[in-house]
Amino acid sequence: MSSPSLYADLSHYYDLLCSNIDYHEQCDFVLRANSLWGNGGKQYLDLACGSGMLLAHFSDAGFSCNGLDISQDMLDMAADRCPSANLICLDMSEIDLHNSMDLISCFLYSIHYCSSVAALQKTFKNIYAALAPGGVFCFDAVDKDCIANDDGHYHYLTLPNHNQLRFQTRWHYSGEGDDLDLHIDIRETAGESQRHYQEKHSMTAVNIINIRQMLENEGFEVQILEHDFARLREWQGENGNVVFCAVKAA
Ligand SMILES: C[S@@+](CC[C@H](N)C(=O)[O-])C[C@H]1O[C@@H](n2cnc3c(N)ncnc32)[C@H](O)[C@@H]1O
Question: Which of 33, 64, 156, 226 counts the highest number of beta carbons within 10 A?
């Protein structure tokens, strides 16, 4: 399967696109959730690890790090950032590990890259099998029924060579079915000239209650939290962005 350009020949833009994300805060959030619900073990796997931002923070926090991604270009960046990590190039629905991971994460809505609802269910099954007893799976997700189909988010940067970058990311959901599109628009302006890239990533639409049910079907105990990495707060049932902490029985 070929990766979207942002994760292949345009992967040099990836860290710039994510430069406004506080991975340190995200790591702290997962560590706090893990200390509440986890088994205390140190084997960590980041699914769809991208360029290894979270891997580097978990390595600093004393975890033995494993990263999985479908794109070798992204894994090459992860290898530079976190040389001690064990990296696997694979579709996340195909993970085949048994009782060996204590903590598994999948962030920046990457779980929606599972190619269908059936692939998502298979991924949850394989993650359950991969976790040691008492292990935790932490990931974020967006509810298809809360997609605004608006302009999404803009992120502007000036590069050291004075080129101007504008990133736009937006969701689109038709209101029916399981297809969710992520539109990414990258413009780099250098004086009078401009490079412009547009791509559409095909993702899987689900809602929060269905995800909880799918996780419970595999045997997980599920906590749903507000998507606020500054604090751990139980989901109040209104926001369409959440973090799941799914715990395998000890
Ligand atoms: C939005 S990036 C997130 C990367 C990282 N989690 C982060 O927070 O920076 C999505 C990543 O998912 C990877 N990906 C897409 N589909 C995948 C799949 N089916 N299995 C594993 N990785 C996948 C892409 O190659 C990309 O690195």
Answer: 33
Q: Residue length, the chain?
A: 250
Q: How far is the CA of 114 from the centre of ligand 1 (A)?
A: 10
Going 70 to 148 to 230 to 166, the CA torsion angle's sign is: positive
Domain residue extents for the chain: 5-143+205-247, 145-204
Residues 6+ apart with CB under 8 A from 60: none
The whole-number pLDDT of residue 117 equals 98
Is 1's pLDDT higher than 60? Answer: no
Q: Which two tokens stand for residue 37?
A: 């619900």
Q: For residue 3, what pLDDT is reported?
A: 72
pTM here is 0.97
State the distance from the centre of ligand 1 to the C-alpha of 69, rounded, in angstroms. 6
With the most atoms of ligand 1 within 8 angstroms of its CB, the residue from 66, 110, 114 to mutate is 110
What's the topology of domain 145-204? S-adenosyl-L-methionine-dependent methyltransferases (2.20.130)
Q: Which residues line ligand 1 (CB under 6 A)?
A: 3, 7, 18, 48-50, 53, 69-71, 74, 91-92, 107-108, 110, 113
Q: Of all protein residues, whose CA lies closest to atom 16 belonging to ligand 1?
A: 113
Residue 192 Cα to ligand 1 midpoint, Å, equals 33
Q: What pLDDT score was predicted for residue 2?
A: 64
CA of 193 to the centre of ligand 1 (A): 31
> What dihedral angle (degrees, nearest 10) is formed by the CA atoms of 88, 93, 96, 98?
110
Strand-pair partners of 86 = 66
* pLDDT at position 5 over 60: yes
| CATH placement of domain 5-143+205-247 | 3.40.50.150
